[in-house]
Design a protein that fits this description.
This protein is of the alpha/beta class. It has 2 domains: 155 residues, no CATH class; 229 residues, Rossmann fold, CATH 3.40.50. Helices cover 42% and strands 16% of the residues. Strands 3, 4, 5, 6, 7, 8, 9 and 10 form an 8-stranded mixed β-sheet that branches. A two-stranded antiparallel ribbon has the order 1-2. Helix 1 runs parallel beside helix 3 and helix 3 packs parallel to helix 10.
């Protein structure tokens, strides 16, 4: 018996012999069967892990059974758990089409299409929740303190936020009458890698390696009285964290970039990113971390936008692409590799950087910013030098500041 399933999340797969789900001997009977229609996050996570295990063991039949259950929970216009489940289901189906092609008849038209937010959409999103503004505020305040006493400022900006961080800082520099210059690398590095036409040697990695080869201190022609600032906003997670034995430097692209940055001898390096470790090789580990982390923006958007809001669906679609890349792809094709603030801090120390604690004024500015948003948002300090944005107590974004060893007062 073969039954086609078309669910609320616009997925399309063929379920072979779905009656196995009702078999008392089936691994999905009993407790998992009770999850039908459930909105409990722990139960959904359990189902996702069962599906991951089935795919890792090339068990297409069991994977389809779990997907059938997930489809009864998923909805693009439901509560946050249902909406998040819809995107995980799509990602799992996409992965299943690759690892179990003979066991699953997959409709490729259901694959999540690559879509980037427009600048206008991003601007509205930035104002809606403090996911980006938190990092902008903390970074700009730390930068202004670090450049005190310099007659000119040169900023190397590595980010994906289309320069939305800079108007506030530019105004502050104008008040101080400090000349400034920007070199902006303002793009999503993931755009260099197409999920549909990826060669074994990632075009994304090639671009970054080319960038590192051309990025040298002499190209900036800095003066002795000129402050160099290096700003990394949501950018490092797109650099591969896997060591390459065949490269010039036997290290990962991420470490090679930090080595290059240290060679510039900057007065401050600011690193802001999502506080989630999604670099694990284990699919089950990534699913657990991803589900519990990306619940945050889905839940936060629930507070501000109606369930059927087209704006909300577009924002969630952008997150959906992230989920597909984390869950569906491996090797060079998996370019979403964020690491926690704690792991990033250790990486920075290993690269020869010392942390710079945020001053009282910076902390006050961030707190004032958060007062403009919903009460669920908060801030905490970790390891005495890291500021972390929280939603209902859950870590979401970290902000850190660094200097090369020996430069700290």
């Amino acid at each position: 018996m073969e039954t086609e399933l078309r669910g609320n999340s616009n997925t399309s797969i063929s379920l072979q012999n779905p009656s196995l789900f009702n078999n008392p001997q089936s691994s999905l009977s009993g407790a998992l069967k009770g999850c039908l229609g459930s909105l409990d996050g722990a139960c959904i996570e359990k189902l996702l892990l069962h599906c991951a295990s089935a795919l890792e063991h090339n068990d297409g039949t069991l994977a389809q059974q779990v997907m059938w259950v997930l489809n009864n929970v998923a909805s693009l216009v439901g509560d946050p758990n249902q909406r998040l489940t819809s995107w995980f289901l799509r990602a799992l189906i996409s992965r299943a089409s690759k690892v179990c092609p003979t066991a699953m008849n997959f409709d490729g038209s259901s694959t999540i299409r690559r879509r980037n937010m427009s600048v206008t959409e991003l601007a509205v999103y930035v104002d809606l929740i403090p996911w980006h503004r938190f990092g902008f505020c903390a970074s700009n305040s730390a930068i202004l303190k670090a450049i005190e006493g310099y007659s000119k400022v040169h900023i190397l900006d590595f980010s994906i936020t289309h320069c939305m961080q800079w108007p506030t800082l530019i105004d502050a520099l104008a008040i101080r009458d400090v000349p400034f210059e920007f070199n902006v690398f303002d793009h999503d590095p993931s755009s260099f890698a197409s999920s549909e036409t990826m060669s074994q040697e990632s075009s994304h990695d090639f671009h970054i390696e080319s960038l590192l080869n051309h990025l040298t201190p002499t190209m900036l022609d800095l003066r002795d009285d000129e402050a160099l600032v290096i700003n990394c906003q949501n950018w490092l997670r797109y650099l591969s964290d896997e060591e390459k034995g065949n490269s010039v430097q036997d290290c990962s692209l991420r470490d090679a970039f930090l080595c290059t940055v240290k060679g510039f001898n900057p007065c401050i390096v600011v690193v802001v990113d999502e506080d989630s470790d999604l670099s694990a090789p284990s699919l089950s580990s990534r699913i657990t971390t991803c589900f519990n982390f990306l619940w945050i923006p889905f839940d936060a958007l629930e507070t501000f936008l109606l369930k059927d809001s087209s704006q909300r669906i577009e924002y969630e679609s952008d997150i959906g692409h992230k989920i597909e890349n984390i869950i569906s792809f491996e090797g060079a094709q998996r370019i979403e590799r964020s690491e926690s603030g704690i792991k990033l801090a250790q990486r920075m120390k290993n690269a020869g950087f010392s942390s710079v604690p945020f001053c009282v004024d910076t902390i006050g500015e961030v707190r004032s910013l958060l007062e403009e948003h919903a009460s669920g948002w908060g801030m905490k300090r970790e390891e005495d030098h890291m500021l972390v944005l929280t939603w209902k107590g859950h870590n979401s974004v970290f902000s850190t500041a660094w200097v090369p060893n020996g430069l700290q007062d």
